[in-house]
């Protein structure tokens, strides 16, 4: 058991499930007895994660989808709810942070198509999935939404480009707004702001940059996906039942605001 209560038997829809943080969140929920609906556009890693979760005794289904369009989110949601029933916990985890030769492009260099792609994946998908999952939560008068922001959405960080920072900041606004809209239905909405976490996402920049971040992080190291997963499970659990509209840094004391 995870130590977090109220997760056993709950249904979870998790985007970007096959990535570093997503996989840790999936395993964390599975360990706590929740039933998983996994969404990712990487079918190979998504199916492998589903199989690993099932092998560990969990209920898990995978829907392959590019979450940047509403139609694809709608298909994935329909596929997963037909297997699992309505969604109790939505984790908007998917996120991309494109770089060119390891560098964040500046405003005068940024191709509009790259900007649009980041907005679609990091921000629009969160709205699409919340739009699809919230009616069930409102109807059953209960639910949880966790949005994956970043410390780069709260403070200036030269490693990422403006599209990433802008979408992660926008998720903070969504978190507060949805918390206010959904509170009367006992649905909580919170956000996570990870610092530098060891996942495949970090490989887009040279190792020296990640080493430099570790040096200026209070705890002098990068985080692990499991450390982000623990905070996500907390927000989804009964222990956090009176916590809503909040964003928790899981950053080891990097970019403290
Ligand atoms: N790793 C970090 O240091 C860090 C720090 C702060 C915030 N975050 C955030 O945490 C979240 C997870 O990051 P991660 O490090 O696990 O990244 P990751 O690259 O390991 O995983 C991202 C996953 O999203 C999937 N994906 C990408 N585009 C998609 C699309 N259009 N449709 C469906 N799936 C898609 C990928 O296939 C991948 O499995 C992201 O929102 C990221 O911004 C990460």
UniProtKB/TrEMBL annotation:
Enzyme class: oxidoreductase
UniProt keyword terms in alphabetical order: Oxidoreductase
Top-level taxon of origin: Bacteria
UniProt-listed Enzyme Commission number(s): 1.1.1.100
InterPro entries associated with the record: NAD(P)-bd_dom_sf, Sc_DH/Rdtase_CS, SDR_fam
Any one GO molecular function term: quinone binding
Gene Ontology BP, a term: fatty acid biosynthetic process
PANTHER family in UniProt: 3-OXOACYL-[ACYL-CARRIER-PROTEIN] REDUCTASE, SHORT-CHAIN DEHYDROGENASES/REDUCTASES FAMILY MEMBER
Family: Belongs to the short-chain dehydrogenases/reductases (SDR) family.
Record protein name field: 3-ketoacyl-(Acyl-carrier-protein) reductase
Species the sequence originates in: Bordetella ansorpii
Lineage: Bacteria, Pseudomonadati, Pseudomonadota, Betaproteobacteria, Burkholderiales
């Amino acid at each position: 058991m995870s130590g977090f209560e109220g997760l056993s038997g709950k249904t979870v829809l998790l985007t970007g499930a096959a990535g570093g943080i997503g996989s840790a969140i999936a395993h964390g929920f599975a360990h706590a007895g929740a039933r998983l609906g996994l969404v990712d556009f990487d079918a190979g890693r998504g199916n492998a994660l589903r199989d690993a979760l099932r092998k560990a005794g969990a209920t898990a289904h995978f829907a392959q989808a590019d979450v940047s369009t509403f139609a694809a989110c709608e298909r994935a949601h329909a596929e997963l709810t037909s297997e699992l029933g309505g969604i109790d916990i939505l984790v908007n985890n998917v996120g991309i942070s494109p770089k060119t030769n390891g560098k964040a492009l500046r405003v005068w260099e940024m191709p509009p198509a790259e900007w649009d792609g980041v907005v679609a994946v990091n921000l629009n998908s969160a709205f699409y999935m919340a739009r699809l999952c919230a009616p069930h939560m409102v109807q059953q008068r209960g639910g949880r939404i966790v949005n994956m922001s970043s410390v780069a959405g709260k403070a200036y960080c030269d490693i990422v480009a403006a599209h990433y920072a802008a979408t992660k900041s926008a998720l903070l606004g969504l978190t507060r707004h949805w918390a206010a809209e959904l509170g009367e239905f006992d649905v909580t909405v919170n956000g996570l702001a990870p610092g530098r976490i060891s996942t495949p996402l970090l490989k887009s920049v040279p190792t020296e940059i990640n080493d430099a971040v570790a040096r200026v992080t209070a705890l002098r190291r990068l985080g692990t996906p499991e450390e982000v997963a623990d905070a996500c499970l907390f927000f989804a659990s009964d222990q956090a039942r009176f916590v809503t509209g909040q964003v928790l840094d899981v950053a080891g004391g990097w970019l403290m605001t």
